[in-house]
Amino acid sequence: MGMLQNMPAIKEVIESERAPDGVEPLTKDSSDEDMDARIARVGNTFCHAAGSIAMGNVVDTDFEGYWCEGSSHSGRKRVPSANHDSLPGHRLCAGRKAADIIPTELSNAKEKS
After folding, report:
1. For the region Disordered, what residue ranges are annotated (predicted)?
2. How far is CA 14 from CA 18, 19, 38, 58, in A?
């Protein structure tokens, strides 16, 4: 939101974000902690019949999500949160991916011991 607010073409028309009640607006200067606190307080999932994103495109082999370059979260990894799918859908995708990886990890651990 902060990036959008500071674009020259729109800067003159946007005064500030209309934050949820009891929450400070986010700005371009908001920290990762500020954003995480906002997500924890008002974050939600939405289900859409058209689906979401393929897990292979946003999750690495350790089930950690990739963030877009240039975002304030760049370089951080966490489980992706697409806004067009339900939370159980993410669990199912992660579970399927884990089912492929866990046997290999167990085999590697046995070989090392």
Report:
1. 13-34, 71-91
2. 10, 13, 20, 31
